[in-house]
Design goal:
Number of helices: 20
Order of helices and strands: HEEHHHHHHHHHHHHHHHHHHH
Strand content: under 5%
Distance between the termini: 44 Å
Helix content: over 70%
Protein backbone atom coordinates (compact mmCIF):
# COMPACT_ATOMS: atom_id res chain seq x y z
CA UNK A 1 0.00 0.00 0.00
CA UNK A 2 2.85 2.37 0.79
CA UNK A 3 4.20 2.10 -2.74
CA UNK A 4 0.75 2.84 -4.15
CA UNK A 5 0.13 5.74 -1.81
CA UNK A 6 3.47 7.28 -2.78
CA UNK A 7 2.82 6.74 -6.51
CA UNK A 8 5.72 4.35 -6.93
CA UNK A 9 3.34 1.66 -8.21
CA UNK A 10 0.26 1.96 -10.40
CA UNK A 11 -2.67 -0.45 -10.17
CA UNK A 12 -3.59 -0.88 -13.84
CA UNK A 13 -6.30 -3.48 -13.07
CA UNK A 14 -7.55 -5.14 -9.89
CA UNK A 15 -4.58 -7.02 -8.46
CA UNK A 16 -2.24 -6.00 -11.32
CA UNK A 17 0.49 -3.41 -10.77
CA UNK A 18 3.24 -1.75 -12.75
CA UNK A 19 6.10 0.52 -11.79
CA UNK A 20 5.85 4.22 -12.39
CA UNK A 21 7.92 5.17 -15.46
CA UNK A 22 10.48 7.10 -13.41
CA UNK A 23 10.86 4.25 -10.94
CA UNK A 24 11.34 1.79 -13.78
CA UNK A 25 14.01 3.97 -15.38
CA UNK A 26 15.80 4.37 -12.04
CA UNK A 27 15.74 0.61 -11.39
CA UNK A 28 17.16 -0.09 -14.84
CA UNK A 29 19.90 2.47 -14.30
CA UNK A 30 20.85 0.87 -10.97
CA UNK A 31 20.91 -2.61 -12.52
CA UNK A 32 23.15 -1.45 -15.36
CA UNK A 33 25.46 0.26 -12.87
CA UNK A 34 25.66 -2.28 -10.04
CA UNK A 35 24.89 -5.70 -11.59
CA UNK A 36 27.11 -7.67 -13.90
CA UNK A 37 26.02 -8.73 -17.36
CA UNK A 38 25.74 -12.30 -16.13
CA UNK A 39 23.54 -11.30 -13.19
CA UNK A 40 21.25 -9.24 -15.40
CA UNK A 41 20.89 -12.12 -17.87
CA UNK A 42 20.10 -14.55 -15.06
CA UNK A 43 17.37 -12.21 -13.80
CA UNK A 44 15.86 -11.98 -17.27
CA UNK A 45 16.08 -15.76 -17.61
CA UNK A 46 14.16 -16.26 -14.37
CA UNK A 47 11.43 -13.93 -15.62
CA UNK A 48 11.20 -15.73 -18.95
CA UNK A 49 11.08 -19.10 -17.23
CA UNK A 50 8.39 -17.97 -14.80
CA UNK A 51 6.05 -16.73 -17.54
CA UNK A 52 6.78 -19.80 -19.65
CA UNK A 53 6.02 -22.18 -16.80
CA UNK A 54 2.84 -20.29 -15.97
CA UNK A 55 1.69 -20.30 -19.61
CA UNK A 56 2.37 -24.03 -19.86
CA UNK A 57 0.28 -24.69 -16.75
CA UNK A 58 -2.55 -22.61 -18.18
CA UNK A 59 -2.36 -24.42 -21.52
CA UNK A 60 -2.48 -27.82 -19.81
CA UNK A 61 -5.46 -26.72 -17.71
CA UNK A 62 -7.51 -25.50 -20.68
CA UNK A 63 -6.49 -28.20 -23.18
CA UNK A 64 -5.74 -31.29 -21.07
CA UNK A 65 -6.36 -33.86 -23.81
CA UNK A 66 -4.10 -32.44 -26.52
CA UNK A 67 -0.74 -33.93 -27.46
CA UNK A 68 2.25 -31.84 -26.44
CA UNK A 69 5.97 -31.98 -25.76
CA UNK A 70 7.44 -30.89 -22.45
CA UNK A 71 9.01 -27.48 -22.00
CA UNK A 72 12.56 -27.05 -20.70
CA UNK A 73 12.10 -24.04 -18.42
CA UNK A 74 14.08 -23.99 -15.20
CA UNK A 75 12.31 -25.32 -12.14
CA UNK A 76 10.87 -21.98 -11.10
CA UNK A 77 7.98 -21.65 -8.67
CA UNK A 78 4.70 -20.97 -10.47
CA UNK A 79 1.29 -21.67 -9.00
CA UNK A 80 -1.05 -23.77 -11.10
CA UNK A 81 -4.73 -23.14 -11.80
CA UNK A 82 -7.54 -24.81 -9.90
CA UNK A 83 -10.05 -24.36 -12.73
CA UNK A 84 -10.16 -23.69 -16.43
CA UNK A 85 -11.74 -20.25 -16.10
CA UNK A 86 -8.81 -18.97 -14.02
CA UNK A 87 -6.32 -20.25 -16.61
CA UNK A 88 -8.32 -18.66 -19.42
CA UNK A 89 -8.42 -15.30 -17.65
CA UNK A 90 -4.68 -15.39 -16.99
CA UNK A 91 -3.79 -16.21 -20.60
CA UNK A 92 -6.18 -13.57 -21.91
CA UNK A 93 -4.72 -10.94 -19.60
CA UNK A 94 -1.11 -11.86 -20.38
CA UNK A 95 -1.59 -12.57 -24.10
CA UNK A 96 0.18 -9.42 -25.35
CA UNK A 97 3.02 -9.84 -22.84
CA UNK A 98 3.52 -13.46 -23.89
CA UNK A 99 3.53 -12.52 -27.57
CA UNK A 100 6.28 -9.98 -26.96
CA UNK A 101 8.21 -12.36 -24.71
CA UNK A 102 8.49 -14.85 -27.59
CA UNK A 103 10.07 -12.20 -29.78
CA UNK A 104 12.28 -10.89 -26.98
CA UNK A 105 13.56 -14.41 -26.32
CA UNK A 106 14.25 -14.92 -30.03
CA UNK A 107 16.01 -11.55 -30.36
CA UNK A 108 18.23 -12.11 -27.31
CA UNK A 109 19.33 -15.70 -27.92
CA UNK A 110 17.01 -17.35 -25.44
CA UNK A 111 16.51 -20.03 -28.05
CA UNK A 112 14.90 -22.81 -26.05
CA UNK A 113 12.47 -20.43 -24.39
CA UNK A 114 11.44 -18.91 -27.73
CA UNK A 115 10.64 -22.36 -29.15
CA UNK A 116 8.76 -23.40 -26.01
CA UNK A 117 6.75 -20.17 -25.84
CA UNK A 118 5.63 -20.68 -29.44
CA UNK A 119 4.39 -24.22 -28.90
CA UNK A 120 2.72 -23.40 -25.57
CA UNK A 121 0.79 -20.44 -27.04
CA UNK A 122 -0.21 -22.16 -30.30
CA UNK A 123 -3.53 -23.54 -29.05
CA UNK A 124 -4.64 -20.35 -27.32
CA UNK A 125 -3.83 -18.10 -30.26
CA UNK A 126 -5.67 -20.47 -32.58
CA UNK A 127 -8.80 -20.65 -30.43
CA UNK A 128 -8.82 -16.85 -30.17
CA UNK A 129 -8.40 -16.35 -33.95
CA UNK A 130 -5.06 -14.61 -33.34
CA UNK A 131 -3.58 -16.12 -36.49
CA UNK A 132 -1.40 -13.19 -37.47
CA UNK A 133 0.32 -13.34 -34.08
CA UNK A 134 0.48 -17.12 -34.30
CA UNK A 135 2.21 -16.96 -37.66
CA UNK A 136 4.76 -14.44 -36.36
CA UNK A 137 5.81 -16.53 -33.36
CA UNK A 138 5.83 -19.83 -35.25
CA UNK A 139 8.08 -18.35 -37.91
CA UNK A 140 10.50 -17.20 -35.20
CA UNK A 141 10.42 -20.65 -33.59
CA UNK A 142 10.96 -22.34 -36.94
CA UNK A 143 13.92 -20.12 -37.78
CA UNK A 144 15.63 -20.95 -34.49
CA UNK A 145 14.88 -24.67 -34.75
CA UNK A 146 16.30 -24.79 -38.27
CA UNK A 147 19.45 -22.92 -37.25
CA UNK A 148 20.00 -25.22 -34.27
CA UNK A 149 19.12 -28.33 -36.29
CA UNK A 150 16.40 -29.49 -33.89
CA UNK A 151 14.21 -31.71 -36.11
CA UNK A 152 11.42 -32.34 -33.61
CA UNK A 153 11.10 -28.60 -32.91
CA UNK A 154 11.17 -27.94 -36.67
CA UNK A 155 8.31 -30.41 -37.19
CA UNK A 156 6.17 -28.88 -34.46
CA UNK A 157 6.81 -25.29 -35.57
CA UNK A 158 5.97 -26.21 -39.17
CA UNK A 159 2.78 -27.93 -38.07
CA UNK A 160 1.65 -24.99 -35.90
CA UNK A 161 2.59 -22.59 -38.69
CA UNK A 162 0.52 -24.67 -41.12
CA UNK A 163 -2.53 -24.27 -38.89
CA UNK A 164 -2.26 -20.47 -38.85
CA UNK A 165 -1.72 -20.36 -42.61
CA UNK A 166 -4.61 -22.75 -43.27
CA UNK A 167 -6.96 -20.67 -41.14
CA UNK A 168 -6.18 -17.57 -43.22
CA UNK A 169 -6.42 -19.27 -46.60
CA UNK A 170 -2.70 -19.64 -47.37
CA UNK A 171 -3.38 -23.08 -48.76
CA UNK A 172 -0.19 -23.94 -50.62
CA UNK A 173 2.19 -22.89 -47.86
CA UNK A 174 -0.01 -24.54 -45.24
CA UNK A 175 0.10 -27.79 -47.17
CA UNK A 176 3.86 -27.57 -47.71
CA UNK A 177 4.56 -27.00 -44.02
CA UNK A 178 2.24 -29.80 -42.90
CA UNK A 179 3.83 -32.19 -45.42
CA UNK A 180 7.32 -31.31 -44.20
CA UNK A 181 6.20 -31.83 -40.59
CA UNK A 182 4.86 -35.24 -41.55
CA UNK A 183 8.09 -36.24 -43.32
CA UNK A 184 10.25 -35.19 -40.37
CA UNK A 185 8.04 -37.02 -37.87
CA UNK A 186 8.16 -40.14 -40.04
CA UNK A 187 11.97 -40.02 -40.17
CA UNK A 188 12.09 -39.55 -36.40
CA UNK A 189 9.70 -42.50 -35.95
CA UNK A 190 7.37 -40.29 -33.95
CA UNK A 191 3.91 -41.71 -34.78
CA UNK A 192 2.00 -39.21 -32.61
CA UNK A 193 3.24 -36.14 -34.48
CA UNK A 194 3.11 -37.95 -37.80
CA UNK A 195 -0.60 -38.61 -37.21
CA UNK A 196 -1.20 -34.96 -36.30
CA UNK A 197 0.54 -33.83 -39.47
CA UNK A 198 -1.42 -36.30 -41.60
CA UNK A 199 -4.63 -35.00 -40.05
CA UNK A 200 -3.63 -31.42 -40.85
CA UNK A 201 -2.81 -32.37 -44.45
CA UNK A 202 -6.28 -33.91 -44.66
CA UNK A 203 -7.87 -30.73 -43.36
CA UNK A 204 -6.11 -28.62 -45.98
CA UNK A 205 -7.28 -30.98 -48.73
CA UNK A 206 -10.80 -30.97 -47.30
CA UNK A 207 -10.95 -27.18 -47.21
CA UNK A 208 -10.21 -26.99 -50.94
CA UNK A 209 -12.85 -29.69 -51.57
CA UNK A 210 -10.36 -32.45 -52.45
CA UNK A 211 -12.42 -34.97 -50.54
CA UNK A 212 -10.81 -38.16 -51.86
CA UNK A 213 -7.35 -37.07 -50.73
CA UNK A 214 -8.69 -35.77 -47.42
CA UNK A 215 -10.49 -39.06 -46.73
CA UNK A 216 -7.27 -41.00 -47.30
CA UNK A 217 -5.17 -38.82 -44.97
CA UNK A 218 -7.79 -38.87 -42.22
CA UNK A 219 -7.99 -42.65 -42.49
CA UNK A 220 -4.23 -43.11 -42.08
CA UNK A 221 -4.14 -40.64 -39.19
CA UNK A 222 -6.99 -42.52 -37.51
CA UNK A 223 -5.13 -45.82 -37.82
CA UNK A 224 -2.03 -44.34 -36.17
CA UNK A 225 -4.02 -42.76 -33.35
CA UNK A 226 -5.58 -46.16 -32.69
CA UNK A 227 -2.19 -47.86 -32.71
CA UNK A 228 -0.65 -45.45 -30.20
CA UNK A 229 -3.77 -45.27 -28.01
CA UNK A 230 -4.42 -41.53 -28.46
CA UNK A 231 -8.14 -41.22 -27.69
CA UNK A 232 -8.35 -37.48 -28.32
CA UNK A 233 -6.58 -37.80 -31.66
CA UNK A 234 -8.81 -40.72 -32.59
CA UNK A 235 -11.94 -38.66 -31.90
CA UNK A 236 -10.58 -35.79 -33.97
CA UNK A 237 -9.79 -38.00 -36.95
CA UNK A 238 -13.19 -39.70 -36.71
CA UNK A 239 -14.86 -36.30 -36.80
CA UNK A 240 -12.87 -35.34 -39.86
CA UNK A 241 -13.57 -38.64 -41.58
CA UNK A 242 -17.26 -38.10 -40.92
CA UNK A 243 -17.04 -34.72 -42.61
CA UNK A 244 -15.81 -36.29 -45.83
CA UNK A 245 -18.52 -38.95 -45.73
CA UNK A 246 -21.23 -36.34 -45.18
CA UNK A 247 -19.86 -34.00 -47.82
CA UNK A 248 -19.87 -36.75 -50.45
CA UNK A 249 -23.43 -37.88 -49.71
CA UNK A 250 -22.69 -40.82 -47.38
CA UNK A 251 -24.59 -39.18 -44.54
CA UNK A 252 -25.86 -42.24 -42.68
CA UNK A 253 -22.30 -43.58 -42.57
CA UNK A 254 -21.18 -40.19 -41.28
CA UNK A 255 -23.69 -40.36 -38.42
CA UNK A 256 -22.21 -43.68 -37.32
CA UNK A 257 -18.68 -42.26 -37.40
CA UNK A 258 -19.77 -39.19 -35.41
CA UNK A 259 -21.37 -41.50 -32.83
CA UNK A 260 -18.03 -43.31 -32.42
CA UNK A 261 -16.32 -39.94 -31.93
CA UNK A 262 -18.95 -38.85 -29.40
CA UNK A 263 -18.52 -42.05 -27.39
CA UNK A 264 -14.78 -41.42 -27.13
CA UNK A 265 -15.25 -37.77 -26.14
CA UNK A 266 -17.63 -38.73 -23.36
CA UNK A 267 -15.36 -41.53 -22.16
CA UNK A 268 -12.39 -39.19 -21.71
CA UNK A 269 -14.42 -36.13 -20.67
CA UNK A 270 -13.34 -33.96 -23.60
CA UNK A 271 -16.18 -31.42 -23.71
CA UNK A 272 -14.65 -29.35 -26.52
CA UNK A 273 -14.44 -32.28 -28.90
CA UNK A 274 -17.92 -33.34 -27.80
CA UNK A 275 -19.29 -29.90 -28.72
CA UNK A 276 -17.65 -30.15 -32.13
CA UNK A 277 -19.17 -33.58 -32.67
CA UNK A 278 -22.66 -32.34 -31.82
CA UNK A 279 -22.19 -29.56 -34.35
CA UNK A 280 -21.19 -32.06 -37.03
CA UNK A 281 -24.19 -34.23 -36.13
CA UNK A 282 -26.39 -31.17 -36.60
CA UNK A 283 -25.18 -30.47 -40.11
CA UNK A 284 -25.68 -34.07 -41.20
CA UNK A 285 -29.15 -34.30 -39.65
CA UNK A 286 -30.13 -31.12 -41.46
CA UNK A 287 -28.95 -32.53 -44.79
CA UNK A 288 -31.20 -35.54 -44.13
CA UNK A 289 -34.11 -33.21 -43.40
CA UNK A 290 -34.23 -33.83 -39.63
CA UNK A 291 -34.26 -30.16 -38.69
CA UNK A 292 -35.57 -30.70 -35.15
CA UNK A 293 -32.71 -33.09 -34.40
CA UNK A 294 -30.28 -30.66 -36.02
CA UNK A 295 -31.46 -27.81 -33.82
CA UNK A 296 -31.24 -29.95 -30.66
CA UNK A 297 -27.65 -30.94 -31.54
CA UNK A 298 -26.67 -27.32 -32.16
CA UNK A 299 -28.16 -26.33 -28.81
CA UNK A 300 -26.04 -28.99 -27.07
CA UNK A 301 -22.97 -27.66 -28.85
CA UNK A 302 -23.85 -24.08 -27.94
CA UNK A 303 -24.26 -24.95 -24.25
CA UNK A 304 -20.57 -25.91 -24.23
CA UNK A 305 -19.11 -23.36 -26.64
CA UNK A 306 -20.60 -20.38 -24.83
CA UNK A 307 -18.47 -21.24 -21.78
CA UNK A 308 -15.22 -21.55 -23.77
CA UNK A 309 -12.74 -18.90 -24.94
CA UNK A 310 -12.83 -17.73 -28.54
CA UNK A 311 -15.65 -15.87 -30.27
CA UNK A 312 -15.03 -17.72 -33.53
CA UNK A 313 -16.63 -20.95 -32.35
CA UNK A 314 -19.75 -19.09 -31.30
CA UNK A 315 -19.81 -17.38 -34.70
CA UNK A 316 -19.71 -20.74 -36.45
CA UNK A 317 -22.62 -21.95 -34.37
CA UNK A 318 -24.55 -18.79 -35.24
CA UNK A 319 -23.86 -19.60 -38.90
CA UNK A 320 -25.18 -23.12 -38.31
CA UNK A 321 -28.26 -21.89 -36.46
CA UNK A 322 -28.85 -19.74 -39.52
CA UNK A 323 -28.81 -22.89 -41.66
CA UNK A 324 -31.60 -24.40 -39.58
CA UNK A 325 -33.64 -21.18 -39.70
CA UNK A 326 -33.20 -20.98 -43.50
CA UNK A 327 -34.22 -24.62 -43.86
CA UNK A 328 -37.41 -23.76 -41.95
CA UNK A 329 -37.85 -20.70 -44.19
CA UNK A 330 -37.49 -18.38 -41.17
CA UNK A 331 -35.56 -16.02 -43.38
CA UNK A 332 -35.25 -12.93 -41.18
CA UNK A 333 -33.92 -15.05 -38.31
CA UNK A 334 -31.50 -16.77 -40.68
CA UNK A 335 -30.25 -13.44 -42.01
CA UNK A 336 -29.60 -12.13 -38.50
CA UNK A 337 -27.63 -15.23 -37.58
CA UNK A 338 -25.56 -15.18 -40.77
CA UNK A 339 -24.74 -11.49 -40.48
CA UNK A 340 -23.67 -11.85 -36.87
CA UNK A 341 -21.39 -14.73 -37.89
CA UNK A 342 -20.03 -12.84 -40.90
CA UNK A 343 -19.02 -9.90 -38.71
CA UNK A 344 -16.76 -12.12 -36.62
CA UNK A 345 -15.36 -14.04 -39.59
CA UNK A 346 -14.44 -10.81 -41.36
CA UNK A 347 -12.90 -9.29 -38.23
CA UNK A 348 -10.73 -12.36 -37.61
CA UNK A 349 -9.85 -12.82 -41.30
CA UNK A 350 -11.36 -16.30 -41.33
CA UNK A 351 -11.55 -16.53 -45.11
CA UNK A 352 -13.17 -19.97 -45.39
CA UNK A 353 -16.08 -19.19 -43.13
CA UNK A 354 -16.36 -15.64 -44.45
CA UNK A 355 -16.98 -17.04 -47.95
CA UNK A 356 -19.45 -19.55 -46.53
CA UNK A 357 -21.43 -16.92 -44.61
CA UNK A 358 -21.55 -14.63 -47.65
CA UNK A 359 -23.00 -17.45 -49.72
CA UNK A 360 -25.51 -18.22 -46.98
CA UNK A 361 -26.63 -14.59 -46.91
CA UNK A 362 -26.91 -14.59 -50.68
CA UNK A 363 -29.12 -17.69 -50.68
CA UNK A 364 -31.34 -16.19 -47.98
CA UNK A 365 -31.70 -12.91 -49.85
CA UNK A 366 -32.67 -14.84 -52.99
CA UNK A 367 -35.36 -16.65 -51.01
CA UNK A 368 -36.56 -13.17 -50.00
CA UNK A 369 -36.53 -12.20 -53.72
CA UNK A 370 -33.83 -9.57 -53.10
CA UNK A 371 -31.83 -10.76 -56.07
CA UNK A 372 -29.52 -7.80 -56.61
CA UNK A 373 -28.32 -7.91 -52.99
CA UNK A 374 -27.99 -11.68 -53.23
CA UNK A 375 -25.86 -11.42 -56.36
CA UNK A 376 -23.46 -9.00 -54.64
CA UNK A 377 -22.93 -11.43 -51.76
CA UNK A 378 -22.38 -14.42 -54.03
CA UNK A 379 -19.82 -12.52 -56.09
CA UNK A 380 -17.98 -11.52 -52.91
CA UNK A 381 -18.03 -15.16 -51.79
CA UNK A 382 -16.76 -16.27 -55.20
CA UNK A 383 -13.87 -13.82 -55.04
CA UNK A 384 -12.75 -15.16 -51.65
CA UNK A 385 -13.27 -18.78 -52.71
CA UNK A 386 -11.05 -18.28 -55.76
CA UNK A 387 -8.40 -16.61 -53.60
CA UNK A 388 -8.29 -19.50 -51.13
CA UNK A 389 -8.91 -22.19 -53.76
CA UNK A 390 -12.07 -23.49 -52.12
CA UNK A 391 -13.89 -25.39 -54.84
CA UNK A 392 -16.82 -26.13 -52.54
CA UNK A 393 -17.58 -22.46 -51.93
CA UNK A 394 -17.03 -21.67 -55.62
CA UNK A 395 -19.73 -24.23 -56.40
CA UNK A 396 -22.10 -22.69 -53.87
CA UNK A 397 -21.42 -19.21 -55.23
CA UNK A 398 -21.96 -20.42 -58.81
CA UNK A 399 -25.26 -22.07 -57.92
CA UNK A 400 -26.30 -19.02 -55.92
CA UNK A 401 -25.60 -16.76 -58.89
CA UNK A 402 -27.66 -19.09 -61.08
CA UNK A 403 -30.49 -18.77 -58.61
CA UNK A 404 -30.39 -14.97 -58.75
CA UNK A 405 -30.26 -15.06 -62.56
CA UNK A 406 -33.36 -17.23 -62.64
CA UNK A 407 -35.15 -14.98 -60.17
CA UNK A 408 -34.45 -11.95 -62.37
CA UNK A 409 -35.67 -13.74 -65.48
CA UNK A 410 -32.24 -14.32 -67.05
CA UNK A 411 -32.95 -17.95 -67.81
CA UNK A 412 -30.19 -18.70 -70.30
CA UNK A 413 -27.54 -17.27 -68.00
CA UNK A 414 -29.07 -19.17 -65.07
CA UNK A 415 -28.82 -22.43 -67.02
CA UNK A 416 -25.17 -21.76 -67.88
CA UNK A 417 -24.22 -20.99 -64.28
CA UNK A 418 -26.18 -24.00 -63.06
CA UNK A 419 -24.32 -26.31 -65.41
CA UNK A 420 -20.96 -24.77 -64.45
CA UNK A 421 -21.72 -25.41 -60.80
CA UNK A 422 -22.79 -28.99 -61.49
CA UNK A 423 -19.65 -29.62 -63.51
CA UNK A 424 -17.46 -28.49 -60.62
CA UNK A 425 -19.49 -30.59 -58.18
CA UNK A 426 -19.10 -33.72 -60.29
CA UNK A 427 -15.35 -33.12 -60.47
CA UNK A 428 -14.97 -33.29 -56.69
CA UNK A 429 -17.67 -35.92 -56.04
CA UNK A 430 -19.77 -33.36 -54.18
CA UNK A 431 -23.52 -34.05 -54.31
CA UNK A 432 -24.03 -30.29 -54.20
CA UNK A 433 -25.22 -30.21 -57.79
CA UNK A 434 -29.02 -30.04 -57.68
CA UNK A 435 -31.22 -32.60 -59.34
CA UNK A 436 -33.63 -31.54 -62.07
CA UNK A 437 -36.84 -30.13 -60.67
CA UNK A 438 -40.16 -29.09 -62.10
CA UNK A 439 -40.65 -26.45 -59.43
CA UNK A 440 -40.36 -23.14 -61.30
CA UNK A 441 -41.49 -20.76 -58.61
CA UNK A 442 -39.22 -17.71 -58.25
CA UNK A 443 -36.19 -18.61 -56.18
CA UNK A 444 -36.98 -22.32 -56.14
CA UNK A 445 -35.18 -23.49 -59.29
CA UNK A 446 -32.24 -24.76 -57.28
CA UNK A 447 -32.22 -27.28 -54.51
CA UNK A 448 -30.58 -25.82 -51.43
CA UNK A 449 -26.78 -26.09 -51.85
CA UNK A 450 -24.92 -27.69 -49.02
CA UNK A 451 -23.74 -25.35 -46.27
CA UNK A 452 -20.16 -25.72 -45.07
CA UNK A 453 -19.73 -28.34 -42.41
CA UNK A 454 -19.45 -27.05 -38.88
CA UNK A 455 -16.05 -28.54 -38.15
CA UNK A 456 -14.21 -25.49 -39.41
CA UNK A 457 -15.01 -24.08 -36.01
CA UNK A 458 -13.13 -26.63 -34.01
CA UNK A 459 -11.10 -25.07 -31.26
CA UNK A 460 -8.05 -27.06 -32.16
CA UNK A 461 -7.36 -30.19 -34.13
CA UNK A 462 -5.33 -33.05 -32.86
CA UNK A 463 -3.04 -31.20 -30.44
Amino acid sequence: MEFLENYLLEEIAPGRFQLHDLVRQYAMALANRDDSTVDRRRAVGRTLDFYLRKADLADRTIYPYHARTDITAADVSAAGFDREEAAKVWLTTERENLFHLVQYAADHVWNTQAIDYAKVMARFFDSGSQWEKAEVIQRRALEIALNLELPQAVAQARLDLSVAQWRTGQIRTALANAAEARDISHRLRDPMWEALALDQIGLVHWSVSDYREAHAYFGVALDIHRDVGDSHGKAESLNHLGLCLAQTGRRHEALGVFQDALDICRAIGDVRAEATTWSNFAHTFLELGYHHDAYDCLQKSWDTYRTLPGRRNKAILMNNFGDVARYRFQLNAALRSYREALSEFSASYDRFNESNALNNIGLTLSDMEKYNEALIHHKMAMSIAEEIESTGEKIRAQLGIAKTDFGMGRYSRAAENLEDGRRLARHISDPCGPPPTGDNRPGRLLARPLPRLASMGRLRHGR
